[in-house]
């Protein structure tokens, strides 16, 4: 299974640490930061969501800034990727209806 982590702040880092305890999970990190790879054999790091999506993730954990949760979730949902979105869902209800409609499809 491949998991893409969107955002690598303290919460994204925690998700990566926890996922690395599960054998055979490949991790894709999308971050704007320059970071040291926590596991070169199991983790790939990208500074572009599009490049990360080329790795064909099965699941996404959205842990970037709250104001970007929904817009990123829409992009990933359109690709058919299952989503785990950190709380709060958003700082606004804008685009939440669109996200719900995409997920229902």
């Amino acid at each position: 299974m491949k998991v893409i982590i969107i955002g690598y702040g303290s919460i994204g880092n925690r998700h990566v640490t926890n996922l690395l305890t599960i054998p055979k999970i490949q991790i894709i990190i999308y971050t704007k930061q320059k970071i040291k790879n926590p596991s070169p054999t199991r983790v790939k790091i990208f500074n572009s969501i599009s490049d990360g999506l080329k790795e064909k993730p099965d699941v996404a954990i959205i842990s970037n800034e709250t104001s970007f949760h929904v817009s990123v979730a829409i992009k990933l949902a359109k690709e058919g990727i299952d989503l785990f979105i950190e709380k709060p869902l958003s700082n606004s209800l804008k685009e939440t209806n669109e996200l719900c409609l995409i997920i229902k499809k």
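The helical segments are 10-19, 49-53, 69-78, 96-104. The first strand starts at residue 2 and ends at 6.
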